[in-house]
Amino acid sequence: MTIIDNAVYVNGSRFANPHSLEQTYEVMDSCGGMAWIGMFRPDAAEMKSLAAEFSLHELAVEDTIMAHQRPKLERYDDVLFTVLRPARYIDKDETVEFGELHIFTGKDFVVTIRHAETPGLASTRTRLEADPRLLAMGPEAVLYAIMDQVVDDYQPVVNGLENDIDEIEDQLFAGDPTVSRRIYQLSREVIQFQRAIHPLREMLERLKSGFVKYHVDVELQRYLRDVEDHVESVTARADSFRQLLQNALTVDGTLTTNRQNEASAAENQQMKKISSWAAILFAPSFVGSIYGMNFDHMPELHWAFGYPFALALMFSVGLAMYLIFKKKTWL
């Protein structure tokens, strides 16, 4: 059985703790309370039971069984189907882990289905149970409280990503060779985070548009507007992260190009030095090779000053080439 926590509430207080779905249905029929069924990866048989009891639409049931859904809010007659993508920042690995939460809300029931270990909804349930007046407002109060927790849990993620981006700025100018890969990894995480939070704006607008039609309590309306404010804040910061990472990637490309140019310039300078000395040493070798050809008619071979002349010529040519290369800053 994949039931994590299951309770029936009457007037905002926990009335019963059924151990199975069938007991939950019986208690609801007998006391007329609101059921909040929390489940973790239910199987097809359990979803079939829930669908039959609460008239859940087959498309929503299929989405829940298949999972891997984008954040969305869909209404099927009197049942609201909501998909959220909670997130948490893992300090040890400096990564963002995303979950998936499906919520069915009807006239007298809430079914929450998690497809990941996090987030646990125990704290949300405890907070609502501590305020019976709020919980007595029905399934809408539970839905808004869950959305509030999910959005509040985005704040540590935003702080963690911001810290990672600050570290990247330090790595950029320190010449860390791994910074490019880290920028791409962070960009991927920010994009996933944006995919989790951007649909919330439209979802909240749709909930607000039903305030009058579904007679939503004024206090719950204020509650939802507070969630909307937090979504706007988180969204704005996440969008700024995307731009910062794009700028960081541009700077990294520029710095990498500059370092490559500097390395190339240093290599060119070394090649100039090697070429210059090779040319300087070639001059005396050339003169020596001429007089080493052993021809019979070479006047300088029998000249008294031939040897000093050859040495002077070698030295003069070598010195002249040295001065030329020195002037051109090759040496």
From TrEMBL:
It is found in: Cell membrane; Membrane. One of its GO terms (molecular function) is magnesium ion transmembrane transporter activity. Its main location: membrane. Belongs to the CorA metal ion transporter (MIT) (TC 1.A.35) family. It catalyses: Mg(2+)(in) = Mg(2+)(out). This is Magnesium transport protein CorA. Mediates influx of magnesium ions. Alternates between open and closed states. Activated by low cytoplasmic Mg(2+) levels. Inactive when cytoplasmic Mg(2+) levels are high. InterPro entries: CorA_cytoplasmic_dom, CorA_TM1_TM2, Mg/Co-transport_prot_CorA, MgTranspt_CorA/ZnTranspt_ZntB. The chain crosses the membrane at residues 274-293, 305-325. It comes from Arthrobacter psychrolactophilus. The keyword tRNA-binding does not apply. Keywords: Cell membrane, Ion transport, Magnesium, Membrane, Transmembrane, Transmembrane helix, Transport. It is a multi-pass membrane protein. It comes from the Bacteria. GO terms for cellular component: plasma membrane.
